[in-house]
Input
Amino acid sequence: MDTSRWKSILVPREVYEEIKELSKAEGRTIGGQLRLVFDWYKDAQVKNNDHTKPRPRPRGNTEKAK
Output
């Protein structure tokens, strides 16, 4: 793999499965779908003037252990 052009990322399995389904339904590659979602995110941040404030990310598993 040309690491100057491509990188691997880790996402939770559920997120990967949803992105995979969306990309297939919309006729895109997974990378193309991720790019589109990221562009939507950036546009929303600019419109909300929040592009300098990072959003809080959930930490760990949000389900309680049984």
